[in-house]
Structures are given as C-alpha cells and as structure tokens.
C-alpha cells in the first residue's frame, strides 16, 4: 500500500511540475478567456421563470483569496483567473448568460446559495452525503487531497492516521480534509497517540508563512493548489495523499432545477473540447471527468 500511494504522489506532482514549467502554466496567456457557444439543449433545461440572482447573468461564488490554480487575481489585482473562473465562464456561455463572478469566503457560499445571493458556487466543493441534503451538484473534477510540508522538513510520509499524531496541520474549516483529519485524530486518541493540532488560517499567504516559519508542520488540502505551489517555488513538497477521492462539483440550491442545465452545459463543453483546454492549461488534466454527473455518491454515502 505505501508503495502504491508513493507512486501516485509522484504521478500527481509530476503532472503539476510539467504544467508549471516552461510551456506549461502561463499566467499571462491564461488571462485570455476560453469561451463556449450557447448550448440550446442546456438552455432548454433552465426552469421556466427561473429567478437568477442578477437577471440575464449567472452569478457564481468563487474563492476570493489567491488559491492557484483554482482561483487567483491576475497582475492587475482585479481580474479573476484560474480553473474555477474558467469553468464558470464555460457554464455561463453554454447557458446563454453573462458571467457575474463574486469573490467570497468559503464560509459564505452555503448561506449565499440558500438565500439566492448566488446561483451557483464553484469553489472546489466536494460532494458529500451531508451537503446533498441542502444542495445539488453537477460534477466537473476529481478531488484529490494532498499533504504538503516544507521542502527541508524531516517528514517524509503522511498516509495513515498515526502519521499525523502530534503534528500541527493547516486545514480548512468545514472542508472534506478537515473531516478526514479529525477522524484520524479520533482514532489516534483512542489508541493513546498524541493529538493532532489543526491550524486554521484565513488565506494562502498565511499558509505559506506558517509552513516556512515552522509554525505548522504540514498543509492538508487540494492537491491541485499544493502541487502548483510545490512546482512553482520548490519550497514545499508532497508527502502523501488523502485516504479517499471524491468529486468536485458546481453547487446550486437543492431542488430549484438549475443543476440539470448546469450538468448539460458541462457535458456539452466536455464533448466540444473547451473543458479539457481549461483543465490542461491549469495543470489539472489528471483530474478530468469523462462525464458530469448529478448528485453522485459522495463522501459519507
């Protein structure tokens, strides 16, 4: 098992390295939007008299902090780029709508969708059993989680519950990775092992500072963001992956019917090729899905 996990770590990091080196991720070139044609079949699935948050626009919540390659600000500090804004644009184009991107915090998107403030959220949101009680999901990427440490760290492997015992680990509040980490910690405490110390930070800069200063031992989060930084700066390294793989999905309000149109939009750009262009240019080609699914089995099912 450790050998198989190590091989997967190497494969995932290799993909990110290839993408972030010459000829790979070009932030300047990636400012240019990839556009899609209106998809009549997807448009026909928009519920009759659907009330969009902003008439004529698809309002999508995305991360406000720099989380490359998922979402980041271009060099003008106001243009949002990244794979999540790109996916949002493809969906909006396919539905014949203008795109209204709203940068927000992770804590805000659930209430924002429930209140009708956002039509959808594209926020690296994993499908879970609990979330499906309040939201509908149309998948667009595989969610792989990774453990990252300072490049000079003595830690070489985090793949099992006992590997996190006594460590200080940065993790996002309310995320899939937090649930995994706390579950591992519960097992460790029952076995008499030292507890893990979850560390919650507010942005990517704080994460980097905590890791490099030694205030935290590791970061546990989306593979795509961790691998991007490791390849780009060389200051961190991947030492393990999470125990489960889930699906990341465009998230909308439960039962309002918009998920059917979003699902058709994603499947349309998968067939026409724009979807693959987006993921490849952001170094996420290894996380592509062959087809978008609505509310598939998720974490906890």
UniProtKB/TrEMBL annotation:
<dbReference type="Pfam" id="PF00497">
    <property type="entry name" value="SBP_bac_3"/>
</dbReference>
<feature type="domain" description="Solute-binding protein family 3/N-terminal">
    <location>
        <begin position="57"/>
        <end position="286"/>
    </location>
</feature>
<keyword id="KW-0732">Signal</keyword>
<comment type="similarity">
    <text>Belongs to the bacterial solute-binding protein 3 family.</text>
</comment>
<dbReference type="InterPro" id="IPR001638">
    <property type="entry name" value="Solute-binding_3/MltF_N"/>
</dbReference>
<feature type="signal peptide">
    <location>
        <begin position="1"/>
        <end position="19"/>
    </location>
</feature>
<protein>
    <submittedName>
        <fullName>Transporter substrate-binding domain-containing protein</fullName>
    </submittedName>
</protein>
């Amino acid at each position: 098992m450790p050998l198989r996990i190590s091989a997967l770590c190497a494969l995932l990091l290799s993909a990110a390295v290839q993408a972030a080196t010459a000829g790979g991720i070009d932030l300047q070139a990636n400012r240019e939007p990839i556009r899609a044609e209106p998809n009549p079949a997807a448009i026909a699935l928009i519920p009759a008299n659907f009330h969009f948050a902003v008439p004529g626009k698809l309002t999508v919540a995305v991360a406000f902090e720099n989380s490359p390659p998922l979402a980041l600000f271009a060099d003008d500090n106001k243009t949002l780029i990244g794979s999540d804004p790109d996916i949002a644009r493809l969906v909006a184009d396919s539905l014949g709508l203008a795109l209204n991107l709203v940068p927000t915090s992770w804590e805000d998107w659930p209430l924002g969708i429930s209140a009708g403030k956002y039509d959808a959220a594209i926020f690296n949101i994993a499908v879970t059993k609990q979330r499906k009680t309040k939201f509908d999901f149309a998948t667009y990427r595989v969610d792989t989680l990774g453990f990252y440490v300072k490049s000079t760290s003595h830690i070489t492997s985090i793949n099992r519950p006992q590997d996190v015992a006594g460590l200080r680990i940065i993790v996002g509040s309310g995320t899939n990775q937090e649930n995994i980490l706390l579950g591992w910690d519960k097992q460790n405490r029952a076995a008499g092992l030292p507890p893990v110390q979850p560390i919650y930070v507010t942005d990517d800069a704080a994460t980097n500072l905590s890791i490099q200063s030694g205030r935290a031992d590791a970061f546990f989060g989306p593979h795509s963001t961790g691998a991007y930084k490791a390849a780009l700066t060389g200051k961190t390294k991947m030492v393990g992956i999470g125990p489960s793989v889930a699906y990341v999905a465009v998230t909308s309000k439960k039962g309002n019917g918009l998920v059917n149109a979003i699902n058709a939009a994603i499947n349309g750009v998968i067939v026409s090729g724009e979807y693959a262009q987006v993921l490849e240019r952001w170094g996420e080609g290894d996380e592509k899905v062959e087809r978008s699914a609505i509310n598939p089995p998720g974490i906890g099912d």
